[in-house]
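FAQ: What does a ligand-bound record look like?

Like this one, built around uridine-5'-diphosphate:
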Amino acid sequence: MAKKILVTGGTGYIGSHTAVELINAGHDVVIIDNLYNSDRSVLEGIQNITGYRPEFHQIDLCERDRLEAFFAGRKDIAAVIHFAAYKAVGESAEKPLMYYRNNIVSTLNLLEAMIGNGVKPIVFSSSCTVYGQPDALPVDENAPVKEPSSPYGNTKQINEQMIRYTVEAGNPLGGISLRYFNPIGAHPSAQIGEAPQGIPNNLLPYITQTALGIREQLKVFGNDYNTSDGTPIRDYINVVDLSRAHVVAVERLMNGHNRQGYEFFNIGTGRGHTVLEVIEAFEKATGQKINYQIVGRRPGDVEKVYADTTYANQELGWKAHKTLEETLLSAWNWEKAYRKNIKAQ
Ligand code: UDP
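The answer part, i.e. the structure of the complex:
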């Protein structure tokens, strides 16, 4: 029987790109998503790129019975890559319990269903937010996990710990958490990309929507930080590069090559850019002018964070390859294609 990799949240931004890279690497994919923050049409995008339409189930991982029913009797799930979660930092501060219920109960149900049905490896979608403002930069995996700055960040920490303790308790499970820095960009085909609902929270969709005239003006949150131009520094990683890290991680688990049972890796480029540098690079890559204004700091923002990727480079044999310019161009091409598509519907 052909083995499949289950991707939870597989119609979401990073999940859909990972589904594509898994298929390109020769894996069979099954997607579970509750479509809370994504659309079924993403399956067409995946199919247009790969020529393969993944099996899809609209299931909410918090619905334990439905999840158990999905797993029961299936012997073809070789591994799980778990993306499905709420992800808006600001919203999590307003509705903490909604975030704890959704992001914790889902993983609890998933782990129990996996163990109950003999499904071993799990790759977890984590975040560099677990480091808070690191004491030293670039931040490597030895840096301490800091007091979370939002309920969202706390759910990432708790999820990592749940997976770690479950693995260490000797359950038949291997786990890898990938701590992403700032994922941006889209598949170069512009068939899939980031499609936030409503007003975007993240920098890149705000930039592309401003360039297209959907938003009037980008607000740059603070220019009084201790950086070259005063705006915060982040490590912006191309979503396709990031997706390939998941392929490598899940293959490592399926091949039994993980050393400690539970591992975690920083997934970034190793380079930091200020907000103004990103705007300038976007303007250069696309020829679009961005109307922006400097405003006050956004509460909870850290000053600078970028990855030391040595461990991921050496242990996973993975590296980010794409340039910031081509990544920004891919985000722009996706935004244009996506809006054209919406209009045509
Ligand atoms: N940012 C901004 N204006 C926006 C959105 C973000 O100036 O409308 C800045 C934000 O202050 C941070 C960077 O862009 O310095 C990246 O923010 P994002 O929300 O994309 O990711 P974060 O690093 O906060 O997870």
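Follow-up question: can I read anything off the structure? Yes, for example: The pocket of uridine-5'-diphosphate is lined by residues 182, 201-203, 206, 218-221, 232, 234, 275, 298, 301 (CB under 6 Å).
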